[in-house]
Hints:
Layout: H1 2-10, H2 14-26, E1 29-30, H3 31-38, H4 42-54, E2 58-62, E3 70-74, H5 77-88
Antiparallel strand pairs: 1-3, 2-3
Helix pairs in contact: 2-4
Amino acid sequence: xxxxxxxxxxxxxxxxxxxxxVLEYNGPMTQKGIVEESMLSARTVxxxxxxLEEIDTVEEDVYFADARQNLYEIIGPEAEAEAPAAAxx
Length: 89
């Protein structure tokens, strides 16, 4: 299944790949934070996040500091690989 996820990610537009990398390096972020970090337009980031959500790569959650915004984070093998390392500490 991980191979098919990688194939799906490779089929996405460059903007979606950039958003994925921004989230990979910075961890969970709001859409506004992604726009600032990636220097893409808000509309492009929205589209990229929609595409990433379609292939179950990114998860949308409530941002408790400001309920008007959402928090986006990577889900899947990348997140699962980090969890056991944190449990060992």
